[in-house]
Design a protein that fits this description.
The complex is a heterodimer of chains A (278) and B (1002). Chain A has 278 residues and is of the alpha/beta class. Chain A has ten helices and ten strands. Chain A has helices spanning 2-9, 12-19, 36-43, 91-98, 121-131, 147-157, 162-175, 191-203, 221-238, 249-252; strands at residues 47-59, 64-76, 80-84, 106-111, 114-115, 132-136, 209-213, 241-245, 257-262, 265-271. In chain A, strand 4 (106-111) and strand 5 form a beta hairpin. Chain B contains 34 helices and 24 strands. Chain B has a six-stranded mixed β-barrel. Chain B has a six-stranded mixed barrel with strand order 15-16-22-18-21-20. In chain B, strand 1 (3-4) and strand 2 (7-8) form a beta hairpin. Classes of the chains: A alpha/beta (278), B alpha+beta (1002). The A-B interface holds A 92-93, 96-97, 99, 101-102, 121-122, 125-126, 128-130, 132, 134, 136-138, 140, 142-145, 149, 153-154, 156-159, 162, 165, 187, 201, 213 and B 449-450, 576, 580-581, 583-584, 586-587, 590-591, 594-595, 597-599, 903-904, 906-915, 917, 994-996, 999-1000, 1002.
Chain lengths: 278, 1002
């Protein structure tokens, strides 16, 4: 217990620095870490997600549920956007359609310059493998794989060699403070540790876009804070775009802006005052 | 069938029905008292119909195997009964002379001898009077029956053994009436002098039609008769080839006017019911027949019992060989319910959370299981009949060449037993798995958290280990004292397993403890024969029977699966290392091999099922292949002769060598040697044994036979250094005999419903190389009771099928009978290059008047080999039904995995797994288990077959250990393809899961 607790309460940012690990968009080399700001400024204004008049209707035959009603939004590269709203307002549905996990009933979504409707399931899947990472509330780790095997899986899917994938997975696990737990299976890890494995898995492939559905929903407030510190830092340092669905205002407050939804539509979309000391 | 597993059908059915009804009553009462639980339990059945269908399919397999075995047995019993009834009809009891063997001998030695077995016809009236108050007796009739060759002059065809029946037209009440194929009755009373009726079979065999003349050879001078009609039924008691004439005419022909040689008695009821009153009639006749030299034989009851024994024996073979599949079926039942419990885990946890007791969960689960069991046993028992029908078709084809009519049949009692047996087994497993499912931790169940590993140091565990060791020790000791290798090996194996559990308690890691135990068991059970013979106590040599095949199969499969499962991580690494470089494969491979290796219990059970069945199929393939070779050695089977022939005793060939010169179609020198057998019925028993001597047809070889014959001996008297020396001694030493292998007991009884030999020697086994010095058979002249001791100097090889049970020289037989006995059987050795089939035809044509029936021995061997191969293939096919069990297990697991891993599939898809990769992952997962199971099965089969074939080779020279590569490849390919087909649908279903839908289940 004590070992796990100690790890959980360690400041993740410090661990990340000690690890000296590189994370970023695309396949940047290690020596490129020194000047991330230059690229940030150049890319910050480029939209990475553009959704226009997106509608999503679930038709069960007996009932038609209008989950999204004409949602339009633009998210620029490197932004951390929080989506909030009451249960059933369409937050997760929006995340699903934006990420290409689900299809829209109407409207258009352009991701990184590519219209989603023009992509086949195969192309969308490949796009996800190359450009996206996912963090889920209930972690959704493969129970039969160890932490490091879970983390290396996206790399293997993307075609990395086993040895390289293992190396990078271990580095990423070290970044999230789980170097010592690399060979443990999810059932042997605490909730916070499992969520950090999920984060490592989402980030190991240097995705341009990270989708997080209630990333701290299953965690206590202290661990939740640690996780958000880590996500904020990664977002800031490696220009990855984060889209977070959350119920927690304190989590939403860590983003650049917060979109409020109600009844399948965007009620408000306003920038946050981002804390500076994280 | 009258017996199943050696138990009377009625008893077995009563016990099983009682168990079933008690179980049903308990379930019924519990259901009434817990209607909510009952509804909660059974609502799952109609709710998921596809899953219910899959479960029922899986559960029914054990029942199906029982039902198919029993149906096969019923069919063979029924066919044997039909055959028996066709020769006896309504005749239940036959009163004849007690001088059965003597009378045959009298007949053999001359026509005048026949008179000895005839008695005054007035006995019929006395029998009627003795039975007149017995309402069960329907008819009493006199009969004269003889056997003689019949020749059709027009077609030049003959039948050497035709039953001639002299029937009293006035005594036919209650007995079978002669009927034509169109159902019209034929009246014996209407037959004019010289007219006869003949059976349809005889008419077909020798080409006789109504109005044709036929010659009957009741003596050297034939009697000419005219065929008045042809009957298709009613000519009883007789073989298929029969001829009927009025009683008085038959008496006159045989020179026995006013005398008969049988009194027939029939009871009320149909042909089978009639046998039931046998004891009453026998008792009523006892005072009348006492001291008369006559006896009443319960011919119907004896025939039915023999039919039941033989048919039941066949069913026993199928049940025994199907044992592995049934074991696999029971494993599948357990697996299905364990998985069902896993699926219901959350529901059960919630139920416990809201206040249900464990017993409530057991009941709820049991109610559901009871419905599945009822359905599965019903479907399985009915489908088993269908499978049995298919098997009967194959058996019919196999026996077609022997004119054995197989009539499909199943008894309701067998169906009830198959149903209740399947139901009771399934239900017992349901109760055990329900109890197991109820022992859950509420929080872990609701949150679907894996159960922690249990402590190694519980008292219960220690007691279990101690009990296992104690049972192991007891079995080992009793195996040694009872000289049973099965008990000994089982005991020592339990000691090994107990030791593994014990050292594990002392802190030895699981992997080490179980791997060492698994490997030890494998080595122990697969020791080569030479090594096991050297290290095991000599008293245990050759004490293992067919049950050892079953026990060793189960043990080595358990050991192998154990070893593999506890070293799965090494296997996993090896696979990843081997295939990890294939483009696109690593992520798929990683998940597909990790899941089965993590779910050790499920994987272990499935591996056990597949490997168990594959193992048996592989061993069967080896056996079939090994035995295929022995048929090639014609010389060994034929004893050096090419043609076997028999002639009628009523018209023997006085000088065969001279007569051969006149046979058309045979050139001088075509036949290089002719040996002959004389045959005589005697009474005999092993010297020094108690009991009455039995009827034995003793054969006597002439010098030409013993000079040429090359049959080998399994055992020889110590004085003879070679097989030839034994043959030479048989010829030159008066009073010596050689016996067939079946007359000497085997160390392991491998007879299934076979008729025991009339003489059974004791004091040694057929596996022993030496015949003990004082081994004698006491042969008795049945006419005068004079006894002669025959010294047994050799036990023939198993394949010497034409020698009969006891073979002596002709001078020895003459010494015993005190008269020369004419030869009836001939063995011809042909010059190399002479066509045996053509020579056979020439011989039959040349000795037509002597009623010669000749067969090419090679043709006989081929027929025998074909039947043998077909039966082996059928057995293999029956055992292969078990493969369905293993494959169904894979299907069940795959279907369950799709449900269980829905979210994980969603994550994989979100992560970038293509649909095809998800599908491939599931297929690879099943492939991994299937291929591993197949590989284990084949490896174990290869290992054990060496010993099995080695054992057979000692008994049957010519049996060889050869790997049947093609068969193995086909088996493995079929098994693998079937497993792929089974998992294809769940895999496809998994690949179709929409990621957003799957993740919504969070």
């Amino acid at each position: 217990m004590s070992g796990h607790a100690l790890v959980c309460t360690q400041p993740l940012a410090i661990i990340a620095e000690q690890g000296g690990i590189v994370l970023g968009v695309g396949r940047r080399e290690k020596n490129a870490v020194a000047q991330p700001q230059a690229t940030t400024e150049q890319m910050m204004d480029q939209p990475i997600i553009v959704a226009k008049d997106v509608e999503k209707v679930y038709d069960t035959g007996k009932v038609r549920v209008h989950a999204l009603r004409g949602v339009s939004l633009t998210i620029t590269r490197g932004e951390m956007v929080a989506i909030m709203g009451p249960s059933g307002c369409g937050k997760t549905t929006l995340l699903n359609v934006l990420s290409g996990l689900d299809e829209v009933s109407a409207g258009t979504i352009v991701l990184d310059g590519r219209p989603m409707e023009s992509m086949s399931d195969k192309q969308r899947t490949r796009f996800r493998a190359e450009k996206m990472g996912f963090i889920f509330q209930s972690y959704n780790l493969m129970p039969v794989l160890s932490a490091v095997e879970n983390v290396e899986l996206p790399l293997l899917v993307a075609g990395s060699k086993s040895r390289d994938a293992r190396k990078r997975a271990l580095e990423t696990l070290a970044l999230v403070g789980l170097a010592d737990q690399a060979n443990q299976r999810p059932a042997e890890l605490s909730g916070g540790q499992q969520q950090r494995v999920t984060i490592a898995r989402a980030l190991v492939n240097h995705p341009a876009l990270v989708w997080a559905d209630e990333p701290t929903g299953a965690l206590d407030s202290e661990t939740s804070g640690d996780i958000m510190d880590l996500l904020s830092r990664l977002n800031r340092e490696y220009e990855q775009t984060f889209v977070l669905v959350t119920h927690d205002p304190s989590v939403a407050a860590r983003g650049d802006r917060t979109i409020f939804m109600r009844d399948g539509a965007i009620e408000s979309d306003r920038p946050n005052q981002r804390p500076t000391g994280a | 069938m009258q017996d199943i597993f050696g138990l009377p059908v009625q008893t077995l059915m009563t016990v099983l029905l009682a168990l079933f009804l008690v179980g049903a009553a308990i379930i019924g009462v519990l259901a009434l008292r817990n209607t909510v639980m009952f509804k909660m339990g059974v609502r799952n059945v109609p709710r998921r119909r596809a899953q219910t269908a899959l479960i029922v399919l899986g559960l029914m397999l054990a029942t199906l195997l029982f039902s198919a075995s029993f149906t096969t047995g019923d069919t063979l019993v029924h066919s044997n009964r039909v055959r028996a009834l066709s020769t006896l009809g309504e005749v239940d009891i036959q009163v004849q002379s007690t001088r059965g063997a003597a009378s045959q001998l009298d007949q053999l030695l001359g026509p005048g001898g026949r008179a000895a077995v005839y008695f005054d016809q007035t006995l019929v009236d006395r029998v009627r009077r003795a039975l007149e108050n017995d309402a069960e007796v329907e008819g009493v009739a006199p009969l004269v029956s003889e056997s003689a060759p019949v020749l059709a002059p027009y077609s030049r065809l003959s039948e050497p053994q035709v039953s001639l029946l002299g029937v009293d037209a006035g005594s036919q009440a209650g007995f079978d009436r002669l009927k034509q194929a169109d159902g019209a009755e034929l009246s014996v009373r209407s037959l004019a002098d010289g007219q006869v009726y003949i059976s349809e079979t005889l008419a077909t065999e020798i080409g006789l039609r109504v109005g044709d003349k036929a010659q009957v050879f009741l003596s050297e001078k034939p009697t000419l008769v005219t065929v008045r009609g042809i009957y298709s039924e009613g000519g009883v008691p007789a073989a298929e080839n029969s001829l009927v004439m009025p009683l008085e005419r038959m008496q006159a022909l045989t020179g026995n006017v006013g005398r008969i040689n049988s009194v027939l008695i029939t009871h009320r009821g149909d042909e089978i019911e009639g046998a039931e009153h046998t004891d009453g009639t026998l008792a009523a006749l006892q005072p009348l027949l006492r001291g008369s030299g006559l006896e009443a034989s319960p011919v119907k009851r004896d025939a039915l019992e023999r039919a039941d024994r033989e048919g039941g024996g066949f069913a026993d073979i199928f049940t025994l060989f199907g044992g592995f599949s049934i074991a696999a079926g029971v494993l599948l039942i357990f697996l299905i319910f364990v998985m069902l419990a896993a699926e219901r885990k959350r529901e059960l946890g919630i139920a416990r959370g809201v206040g249900m007791q464990r017993r409530h969960l057991v009941r709820m689960f049991t109610f559901e299981g009871a419905v599945y069991s009822l359905l599965a046993a019903a479907v399985g028992s009915v489908l088993g009949v269908a499978v049995g029908w298919l098997m009967v078709r194959v058996i019919t084809a196999a026996f077609a060449q022997f004119n054995q009519e197989i009539v499909f049949d199943f008894q309701w009692s067998s169906l009830v037993i198959a149903y209740t047996l399947g139901m009771v087994i399934t239900f017992a497993v349901v109760v055990v798995s329900s109890w197991r499912a109820s022992r859950l931790n509420i929080v872990r169940a609701i949150r679907d958290i894996p159960e922690p590993r249990t402590s190694r140091r519980t008292w219960k565990g220690l007691l279990g280990t101690a009990a296992l060791l104690l049972i192991g020790a007891l079995l080992t000791v009793s195996g040694l004292s009872a000289t049973s290798i099965a008990l000994f090996m089982l005991g020592t194996s339990l000691l090994v397993i107990g030791a593994a559990l014990l050292v594990r308690r002392l802190g030895v890691p699981d992997r080490v403890a179980f791997t060492v135990a698994g490997v030890t068991l494998l080595v122990w059970w697969l020791l080569p024969n030479s090594v096991s013979d050297a290290i095991l106590p000599a008293s245990l040599d050759d004490t293992g029977g067919i049950e050892m095949f079953f026990i060793s199969g189960i043990m080595i499969v358990i050991a192998a699966v154990w070893t593999v499962i506890y070293n799965s991580d090494l296997l996993l690494r090896l696979i990843v290392a081997l295939f990890g470089r294939v483009r696109g494969l690593p992520p798929v491979l990683k998940t597909s091999v990790s899941y089965p290796m993590q779910n050790r219990f499920r994987t272990g059970m499935t591996l056990a099922m597949i490997s168990l069945v594959m193992f048996t199929l592989v061993v069967m393939s080896f056996i079939t292949n090994a035995f295929a070779g022995i048929w090639d050695d014609t010389h060994r089977w034929s004893g050096g002769f090419d043609i076997r022939a028999s002639t009628s005793y009523t018209n023997p060939v006085p000088d065969m060598t001279a007569a051969l010169r006149t046979v058309d179609g045979l050139k001088p020198g075509d036949i290089v040697a002719v040996g002959s057998f004389s045959s005589a019925p005697v009474k005999a028993k092993a010297a020094g044994t108690d009991g009455e001597p039995a009827n034995l047809n003793i054969n006597a070889a002439d010098d030409a036979y013993t000079d040429v014959v090359s049959y080998a001996f399994g055992s020889r008297a110590a004085a003879y250094k070679s097989d030839r020396a034994v043959w030479q001694a048989l010829k030159s030493e008066d009073g010596t005999a050689v016996v067939s292998a079946i007359t000497v007991p085997a160390k392991v009884n491998q007879e299934f419903g076979e008729q025991p030999p009339p003489v059974r020697l004791s004091g040694f086994f057929r596996e022993d190389p030496i015949v003990p010095e004082n081994t004698y058979i006491e042969a008795q002249d049945p006419r005068i009771g004079r006894v002669q001791r025959l010294r047994v100097i050799g036990v023939l090889d198993d394949v010497a099928l034409s020698t009969g049970d006891v073979l002596v020289s002709q001078p020895t037989l003459e010494g015993l009978i005190q008269a020369p006995v004419p030869a009836e059987s001939y063995f011809y050795k042909l010059r190399p290059g002479v066509d045996a089939v053509a020579a056979t035809r020439a011989l039959e044509a040349g000795f037509l008047a002597n009623g010669m029936q000749a067969e090419s021995i090679r043709e006989e061997i081929d027929t025998f080999a074909g039947t043998n191969t077909m039966i082996n293939t059928l057995l293999q096919g029956f055992m292969g039904l078990g493969l369905i069990v293993g494959i169904a297990a894979l299907g069940v697991i795959a279907a369950r995995a799709v449900v269980e891993r829905r979210q994980q599939i969603g994550v994989l898809r979100a992560m970038g797994f293509q649909r095809s990769q998800v599908q491939l992952s599931f297929l690879l997962e099943s492939s991994f288990v299937a291929l591993l199971g197949i590989a284990i099965g084949i490896a174990l089969g290869l290992g054990l077959s060496r010993n099995v074939i080695g054992g057979f080779a000692e008994q049957f020279p010519g049996v060889r250990y050869e790997i049947p590569w093609l068969q193995l490849l086909v088996l493995a390919g079929l098994a693998y393809l079937s497993s792929l087909l089974t998992t294809y649908l769940p895999a496809r279903q998994a690949s179709r899961i929409h990621p957003a839908e799957a993740l919504r289940f969070e």
